[in-house]
Known about the structure:
By secondary structure, the protein is mostly helical. It has one domain. It has helices at residues 2-8, 24-29, 34-57, 67-89, 91-97, 108-118, 123-153, 178-202, and strands at 155-158, 162-165. It has a two-stranded antiparallel ribbon. A hairpin with a 3-residue loop joins strand 1 (155-158) and strand 2 (162-165).
Amino acid sequence: MRFWNEFIKGLWKENPIFRLVLGMCPALAVTTSVENSLGMGVAATFVLVCSNIVISSIRHLIPAKVRIPCFIVVIATFVTIVDLLMNGYANELHKSLGLFIPLIVVNCIILGRAEAFASKHPIFLSIADGLGMGLGFTLGLTILGAFREILGEGSITIWGDIGFQVGGMQPMVLMILAPGGFIALGILLGFMNHLQAMSAKKRGGSFEPPAHLDCRHCTICKFGS
């Protein structure tokens, strides 16, 4: 039960993009297509799960004063593995994502989960946290990518073979440009908050984002403590 609870929290309650609003750099930069979104999501999930496992395994061996450099070395190792694998087996996707693959090293979701969870919990739960947050991140990227690609291209194409065309729709090029990322994210965040508010109203309450999910309470900002 504890494993399941840690897993599902990243899918909705603490979704990195729509609830925690973390990882905005890749979320806005690579979501011009579903293909790019899925590629980035899978890469980040692999790094997140593997780094959580290693950091949880050695958490009692890492001195507190050097924990952040140690976390970064572990994360960078798995990012390098992902970078080389994608370059070798998914070269077109690797070219499309470009610099954003190496930048996974400094993705606040990866480092934040290492500090806030993996360094304080056993391997079993760290795997659940990594999988849940990684899949939640992938889901958020994919939804955002599909929204932008449909409106901006009038179609969705995945690896050139799978896709569909939206008939009778005039593409809005703005949606696949940088400003379109902000517009799409704002619309989707508003929609998610509306769903939360309606759900809370049905239960006879009101929706207020949990205080511990606020940016001011982010663990990353407390590295010096």
